């Protein structure tokens, strides 16, 4: 049963990657973080969060009523972008599936939205995505890290 869930999770991850890889966020919605942003430690290595933005629509899919897509941009700790072919999306997705029950976004209303296998490149940016209720603040919870408050732009 657990193997079947991993296979299903893998298929969902592949579909989510295809879904996100052809998204076109608005050009003004990609702020960058200062180098002082905390490092996100993972079993695959360290990353820096350089953006967090909300979107109503991703690749012609509308967020459900009362929710938005939260896209979190990741880069290397030295602020170098993750490049397709050099960075293993498959290894990243495997890590995310294995930890998906512990990776979540907490809203200021106390809601918890767990990772739903959305991740990949949007234009030139590597992002992970969550479908979240509309809140004023969001905090990323990731095993091995302190809670990371996100500075979200819309």
Give a quick precis of the structure.
With 154 residues, this protein is an alpha+beta fold.
Structure report:
The structure is a single chain. The protein is of the alpha+beta class and 154 residues long. The protein has one domain. It has 2 helices and 11 strands. The strands form 3 sheets. Strands 1-2-5-9-8 form a 5-stranded antiparallel β-sheet. The chain has a 4-stranded antiparallel β-sheet with strand order 7-6-10-11, with no helix packed on it. Helix 1 (2-21) crosses helix 2. It is globular and about 35 Å long.
Question: Any key phrases for this structure?
Answer:
154 residues, 5-stranded antiparallel β-sheet, globular, alpha+beta, 11 strands, 2 helices, disordered N terminus
Describe the secondary structure blueprint for this structure.
Elements: H1 2-21, E1 39-42, E2 45-55, E3 57-58, E4 61-62, E5 67-75, H2 89-99, E6 104-107, E7 112-114, E8 118-122, E9 125-133, E10 138-141, E11 148-150
Antiparallel strand pairs: 1-2, 2-5, 3-4, 5-9, 6-7, 6-10, 8-9, 10-11
Helix pairs in contact: 1-2
